[in-house]
């Protein structure tokens, strides 16, 4: 589904990603853990071209994002993203937040998009909130709407950047439950998270990113129970 080869990203003088190569299979759930500032968000943002790598190549379903003539918009639509701070449109109702992109990009008619929005809202437990504005929702509800909004574009991959970090503790479970259900439905997912219990339970694979490279990767059992790299061990000893 996704292949990246030797991705580098430099901001000014600072090389933030120093050569990341990785493949993510269809249906795979990959969690990314690592210290703050290590390049996790930058890596995710490269995967849907919110950032352009300074070097290296990204393939989505075998198609290069950087090939001359690449249909970047079509490729980007295959990749849904959920951010730490929800990024809902405050002036639109919940339903309109969800229908905006599929209608604007001609993926669905207005009425099909509305039906789809209600269906997705039911899936995240918020079908009764279709006509309210985001300001009336809790953080956990906003994040579930953001997930529904991303799914409305029928992406092939979902990227999550610390989706529960901005939430009050009692809201975290509902959002993780929605993500777990998505994983069980076979969605390909890449999740930057500090929820180690969740990562261990849901992931097929865990990547430990530090200082702009993948320092260690493996099954959740390998990474959490028997990490081999000293930096992984040190990081986990602080967060577990
Ligand atoms: P993480 O998500 O692991 O905390 P980030 O990918 O957000 O790390 O950031 C990695 C480094 O890149 C940080 O030092 C950050 O300040 C820097 N950085 C990220 N985005 C930009 C940007 N747009 N311009 C300059 N520096 C950036
Ligand atoms: Mg980040």
From TrEMBL:
The keyword Transmembrane does not apply. Residues 2-236 form the ABC transporter domain. Keywords: Amino-acid transport, ATP-binding, Cell membrane, Membrane, Nucleotide-binding, Transport. GO terms for cellular component: plasma membrane. One of its GO terms (molecular function) is ABC-type amino acid transporter activity. The keyword Cell membrane applies. Its main location: membrane. It is found in: Cell inner membrane. It is a peripheral membrane protein. InterPro entries: AAA+_ATPase, ABC_ATPase_HisP-typ, ABC_transporter-like_ATP-bd, ABC_transporter-like_CS, MetN_ABC_transporter-like, P-loop_NTPase. Belongs to the ABC transporter superfamily. This is Amino acid ABC transporter ATP-binding protein. It comes from Ferrimonas aestuarii.
